[in-house]
Amino acid sequence: STIALVFLAAIKGIVGFYSGSSSLIADAIHTSMDIFTSLAVWIGLRLSLKSSGEHFPYGYYKAENLVALFVSVIIILSGVELVRGALKTIKDPVELEFQGLALGAAVFSVITIYALSQYKFKIGRQIGSQALIADAKHSYTDVFSSMVVVVAITGSMFGMPWLDSAGVLVISLIIFKLGITTAKESALTLMDAWLDRDSIERIRNTVDHIPGVNKVDDIRLRRSGLVVFGEMQVESAGEYDLKRVEMLSAEIEDAVKSEIPNLEHLSVDVKPGKISVLRIAIPVMMPEGLQSKLSRHIGKAPYYIFIELKDNKIMSWDIGENPAADLDRKRGVKTAEYLEEQGVNVVIVKDIGEGPFHKFHDSFIKLLEMPDDVEDVETLIGKIPELRVINSPTE
Fold this sequence. Notes:
Elements: H1 2-19, H2 22-48, H3 63-91, H4 99-127, H5 130-157, H6 162-190, H7 197-208, E1 213-224, E2 227-236, H8 242-259, E3 263-272, E4 278-284, E5 303-310, E6 313-321, H9 331-341, E7 346-349, H10 354-362, E8 366-369, H11 377-382
Parallel strand pairs: 2-3, 4-7, 7-8
Antiparallel strand pairs: 1-2, 4-5, 5-6
Helix pairs in contact: 1-2, 1-4, 2-3, 2-5, 2-6, 3-6, 4-5, 5-6, 7-8, 9-10
């Protein structure tokens, strides 16, 4: 892309000089500025492949932003010089020579830059480079500045030589906008600013709906060259073991990557949340309230009593029939799905197979072991603080 732009800038500059077209020379300067922006992307891509050193633990990504900031200053100064030249020539327009050649160069520029933009779009999507896609969008807008030159030269051919100088002013404005936008983005990135507030809200909403997340406390993102680094603090829906925390962190990172594809690293701090109200599911033989006799089978249990407990005191309870009790296959898994639908966060069982265990585990539902010496629900509720947590299948 950069090599093609060098070739294109040379053609427009040479033809513009010999034909006397100020707008073609201005467009050559504009293309020269694009060479620097393409080089900035190339430098960023090259540095992104370099391993982090002792002094640069976060990598060399921001070198691209430093280059872009330097380039933006050059772009703005070039725009100033173009405006000064255009204001001089607009009062005393010059008749163009080699008009056909100048028009051909301008048309060739439009076609080449459009082809380059599509090529960069294709490769950017292929390798997942947001910087290359952004550069492709920039190239696409450059097509319009080249079209301004086509119009200016065409107007000059039809006896309106002042259009050439007017075209320079239009291109100068485009160059100014490019320089200011690049400078602003580079400076803000170097200061770790994150301006896309909508993406923060989308991430918060997505992570809030992940099972096991109670709430999102804080989200911090910062761009570094081509990539994004992030930090998150979330409160889990209860206390979990290390394996569950790792699984939850990985799921959160995947959710953030769906919104920020060029996420390089996300640090997730999971703090255990205190559940104020426990909704406990207990398998029972008959629907006899708190005097119900316990069932020792998770899938074969005909009924489940659901108890809401706060500060070890019963707030309310209700009983539901187990829809999976009469199934021939996958009774345990189907029972686990039923209990998950009931919104429970604790299940008390005697034994549990691998299928239902992983179903509960993945849904962040805590499993407590039912003791052998307890026969009814009311007695079992009083022993909940003493019950052992089940951390693996028992069958």
